[in-house]
């Protein structure tokens, strides 16, 4: 009997040790808003939307301690559309699906993941999403300059290497295989520095789009926390052949007693395309937005945003990210929203 009890105790100890060395976490965000938008000749529309403060999602991530400082991990993440209860059927874990090995050497990560040029563009005062975000220009409609590039945000078949922690210096190199898909073959990297107040970085990427000219993308980020407010800036440049867009964004997030005031501005300067294409000289756009996030708890918040985009020439940028049918070049876009976000 004693031997049986000792054996059971030993098995329990082994099981406890194993569970302590590995873990799996379920996580997610549920975010829904009601918004009213107006897009020139396309008219006005009231909508319920998903993910205007933080993209609605659910996922699983896990890590196993292999000993000697070596760890294996995985990350599977799927986008949710709270307004309709649907998910991305084409790429169910389309937000991220990776497996990694990490240690003192850094991290090697395989699978569908964010590109370095997109990662360096994060840090937007509006969280890179919603009707007030600079993400409208960073990865919204027309941001690939009419090329076949699909790497504005993520790349399939990616192999990435991340630098280990080195006194605030961080970096990434990524190569993704096209595997017969035009616009997915990407090579890029980023290098940055971050401490308690400063987050600055530079990134560069090239995408093979099946034409003599590659799609090229680089950006420079400089964010600084002054304590009473955080400054958010980004200089983002994309080129494809003669076509070019230069985006200059500046914004601020100001903490108040129970929330955060947000304000942002972007100037998109386009050139090189044929007249009427939306990429010609003078086809420029300007974003101006202000908003407020009220924290009900660490995980739950209500928010509101007011935004306007002014277009010139044949530009058709919209607060929706992609211009709706019926909106003409040079027409303006505006909107406001009120939403609720919960993190689990």
TrEMBL record:
GO BP annotation list: monoatomic ion transport
Entry keyword set: Cell outer membrane, Ion transport, Membrane, Porin, Signal, Transmembrane, Transmembrane beta strand, Transport
Database matches in SUPFAM superfamilies: Porins
Pfam families per UniProt: Porin_4
Gene Ontology CC, one term: cell outer membrane
Stretches assigned to the Porin domain: 7-313
Source superkingdom: Bacteria
Keyword Transferase listed: no
Coiled coil location: none
Membrane topology: Multi-pass membrane protein
Keyword Nucleotide-binding carried by entry: no
Stretch forming the signal peptide: 1-20
Protein's name in the database: Porin
């Amino acid at each position: 009997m004693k031997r049986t009890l000792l054996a059971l105790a030993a098995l329990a100890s082994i099981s406890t040790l194993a569970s302590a060395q590995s873990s799996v976490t379920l996580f997610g965000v549920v975010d829904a808003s009601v918004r009213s938008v107006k897009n020139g000749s396309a008219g006005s529309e009231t909508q319920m939307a998903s993910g205007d403060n933080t993209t609605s999602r659910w996922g699983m991530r896990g890590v196993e301690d292999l000993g000697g400082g070596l760890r294996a991990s995985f990350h599977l993440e799927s986008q949710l559309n709270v307004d309709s209860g649907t998910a991305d059927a084409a790429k169910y874990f389309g937000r991220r699906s990776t497996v990694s090995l990490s240690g003192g050497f850094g991290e090697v990560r395989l699978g569908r993941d964010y590109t370095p040029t997109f990662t360096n563009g994060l840090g937007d005062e509006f969280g890179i999403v919603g009707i007030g975000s600079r993400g409208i220009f960073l990865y919204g409609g027309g941001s690939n300059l009419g090329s076949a590039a699909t790497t504005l945000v993520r790349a399939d078949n990616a192999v990435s290497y991340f630098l280990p922690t080195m006194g605030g210096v961080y970096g990434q190199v990524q190569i993704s295989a096209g595997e017969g898909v035009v616009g997915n073959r990407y090579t890029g990297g980023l290098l940055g520095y971050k401490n308690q107040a400063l987050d600055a970085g530079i990134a560069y990427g090239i995408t093979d789009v099946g034409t003599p000219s590659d799609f090229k993308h680089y950006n420079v980020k400089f964010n600084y926390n002054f304590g009473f407010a955080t400054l958010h800036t980004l200089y983002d440049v994309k080129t494809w052949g003669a076509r070019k867009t230069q985006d200059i964004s500046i914004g601020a997030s100001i903490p108040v007693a129970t929330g955060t005031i947000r304000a942002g501005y972007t100037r998109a300067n386009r050139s090189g395309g044929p007249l009427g294409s939306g990429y010609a000289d003078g086809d420029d756009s300007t974003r101006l937005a202000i908003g407020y996030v009220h924290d009900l708890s660490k995980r739950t918040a209500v928010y509101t945003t007011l935004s306007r985009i002014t277009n010139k020439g044949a530009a058709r940028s919209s607060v929706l990210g992609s211009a709706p049918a019926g909106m003409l070049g040079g027409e303006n876009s505006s909107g406001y929203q009120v939403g609720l976000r919960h993190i689990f």
